[in-house]
Automatic annotation (TrEMBL):
InterPro entries: DUF3176
Keyword Transmembrane helix: yes
Transmembrane spans: 69-89, 101-129, 165-186, 501-526
PANTHER family linked: DUF3176 DOMAIN-CONTAINING PROTEIN
Keywords assigned: Membrane, Transmembrane, Transmembrane helix
Transmembrane as UniProt keyword: yes
Pfam families in UniProt: DUF3176 (PF11374)
Protein name, entry field: Uncharacterized protein
Domain of life: Eukaryota
Amino acid sequence: MYHQPKSPRSEPMLAPSPSSAVPLYHYGKATDHITYAPLYADQSPHAYGNPRPPSTPRRGRLLDWGTEIIAWIISFAGTAAVIIVLRMYNDRPLSDWPHGIAFNAVISILALVYKASLLAVTASCISQLKWTRFAKRERNLIELDLFDAASRGARGSLRMIFTPALWHLALLGAVVTVVAVAVGPFTQQAITYPLRTVDVSRATIPRTQTYQNIAPGGIQALKDIPLTMKAAAYNGLFAATSAQTRSTLPAQCSTGNCTFPPYSSLAICTKCANITQMVARNDCSVVPPFGTQCTNYTLPNDLVLNGHGELINSSTSTLSNTKILDSYGSNLANISFLLSQSAIASTPDDIRAYECSIYFCLQKYQSSFNNGDSDRQYMPDIPGSAYSAVDHNITAPPGFVAANEQANFSVGEYSFGAVGHYLGTLLTGYASGDIGEASYTSDAINAIYNSLSSDSNGTSIIQALATSMTADLRTNSGAQFNIAVAPGTATQDVTYIHVRWIWLALPLTLQALGVLLLGITITLSLRNRTPVWKSSLLAALFLGPSSNAPGRPGLQHSVPAFSNNIPFAVPTQKEMEERARTMRVRLSPDESGGLRLQ
């Protein structure tokens, strides 16, 4: 039962309000007439027990939309905040983000504020548009429920979208409500974290402008090379590949990732040629079952290899032995190698011959380090010029050296002589052997024979020797007052923030549709003088279908206690709320056994 709270003064009796009879429609059929309370009936102030003087219309006031306008402003502010933050940190290192909370979390919170505020606006607009729709003409009562469901979330909005009978301006709000589900993922998708290589510090790598490193020798006129250079020579000969010798060159690279622009340095270079076609075969005869055998084999420089048991013979000089290679003025050694691949009874097919020149040169490099691993590109070298009385000078041609480098390079006289003498001693020798045994004059000759006899590119060992000696030449130049380094850049992979703005098109579009929907809804409410009831349930209770339909007194479609206790013809939401606070109801069975709010 409904209980009216007692009041200090009794409420006046309300005069019956005008009404009109219209048919109530269900889907597909019409039922008996039921009287509806008109929304826009002009009520005389004398029709009520409590007369009310005429005043400004109480419907569609802009002030009633204050909450929605503020909500849209908050939504717009959230969108603007997202764009501002993304703009501020776009293409900046992630480390520039100073706050304890993650960057994505801040953007997610701002997007959530934007989305929640926008959905509040669309919900109010959909709710208000149902009153605008019902105010024009009678409609199926179920539409009231469908509009209400659409205003409450994506499920009801989807139902409205797929119900053509409900297509109305509110459809725009339903679309916004459904598509707004993707706002969060789209906003997050706009943010990426690419790795970019950035310069962090200066790097250096040794280079040599002048080489003057020597050690005391046996006699005053002849000096020896330092032990570090000897170690480098052995490292080049005994290392498996020339690449192993390159890693010995140190660089000041703080991050392990460095790049160096092209730079030049004094170096030791080598050129080799296969001169097997120049070998002369002497005293040859057919010896079964070995075939043709020769007593000895010779080169034009009179280097001889015995055809019975001698494996290799090598000799050095400062001039080209065969004229195949140029004789550079800065030649340290010209080496001739004559060898057999058979330990006994060599045949002409077993014989090979090579000539190599080792000389000071200018070498141009372009180096880089990746995780500490070196990668160098070698450009064509420039041999040294003719011998001078004091130094062996090499002058770089125009454009060969970098702008910060000098064009004149030199090797001290004593250093030149010491290196040449050492190479001549190291690379001269021979080996002989029999089945299962061999005798070498030095370990160096052993290494050279193994490489030349087994590798189709056997002279790579000489290249490894030169490369390894160059590494020591660049790190131990002996020029205490002319130390040279090549500048470079230490780099590091840094995580950056990058914004893909195209993904923000959806949130911005929804923002525009939201304000458009709000503006049209407000305009229609003001123009049509529709009461601003929005999603109020009280409006349906207070102004439900009347039960006073002629001839159908027992058909109850309204709550009399509600409709009889509103003092205004067209109440505002606030007025209905004030009245509802003074009323108490419960869901209980009526005389017919049905449940009703009483």
